[in-house]
Amino acid sequence: MLKKISLGLILGTLLILFSTPQQVVRADQLESRATIKLHPESPTKPVDPVDPNNPDQEYPGDETDDGNQGTGTVASLSLDYVSNFHFQTETKQTNVTAPLTNQLAMVQVSDRRGTGAGWVLQLKPDALVGRATQAVLNHGELILGNLTLKAPSSNVSDRPQIITKKISLGAYNNVMRANNGQGLGTWVLGFPKNQQNPTKLILNNLNDAPADHYFGVLNWSLTDAPN
Fold it and tell me: Which segment of the chain is annotated as a signal peptide (predicted)?
């Protein structure tokens, strides 16, 4: 028994002697900090529109929307391109459903801020007005259909979200939203034509509406704070 106790005391003493110098060395280790501040990019030229079907290629144009060259904005958060929507001519009835006739209708958003703060894209379709008669059509809705959302292959950001696909005339609705850390770089929202679920304009209560060529304004809004 005495030998076992003595052995235990010796080992304990050796462990203490070996551990003490290591503690002293660690106490002499200090930390300092390095800091750097990165400013958001200040663009000098607009983002060129790209093909909504293949965003690695430039936008080939849309013969239905001829002459639309994009917005030309150089903002860090920008709407680069917004199509003018053209809908199929319809015979007047009480209710009309008119599909989109554009070949490549799209909206292109670019976030070059580098902060990942997010954004929201909204749309309000105004009532339609007759070119000759000035008659107003304000009962209806825009059905966005089977939308596509793509980005160039170099974009590694998380995708924004498509929020709604049915928008009443005269009301703002969120179409896309990028939460914190989403939607950086360029994103192209494509509007379908001649598919199972195309983009279309539905007009109701047309009993008293005269035959005319009607037009309206699509109000797009891109804000820097997700709603």
Answer: 1-24
Judge whether 96 lies within some domain: yes
148 found inside a domain = yes
For residue 4, pLDDT over 70 is answered with no
Is position 13 within any domain? no
In a domain, 176, yes or no: yes
Distance CA 207, CA 218 (A): 25
Helix or strand (DSSP H, E) at 14: helix 2-27
- Strands 119-125 and 173-178 turn out to be antiparallel
Identity of the amino acid at 177 = R
Q: How far apart are CA 156 and CA 117, in angstroms?
A: 16
In angstroms, the CA 96 to CA 202 distance is: 6
Of the candidates 192, 176, 79, 172, the one whose C-alpha atom is nearest the C-alpha of residue 126 is 172
- Cβ neighbours around 221 below 10 Å, total: 13
Give the total number of structural domains in the chain: 1
In sequence order, what are the residues at sequence separation of 6 or more whose Cβ sits closer than 8 angstroms to the Cβ of residue 207?
94
Assess contact for 136 and 216: CB atoms under 8 A: no
163-206 pLDDT, tens digit per residue, is: 999 999 999 999 999 999 999 999 999 999 877 899 999 999 99
Would residue 140 be called left, alpha or beta, if left means φ above 0 and alpha means ψ between -120 and 50 degrees?
Answer: left
Radius of gyration of the chain (CA): 31
Rounded Cα–Cα distance for residues 108 and 72 (Å): 12
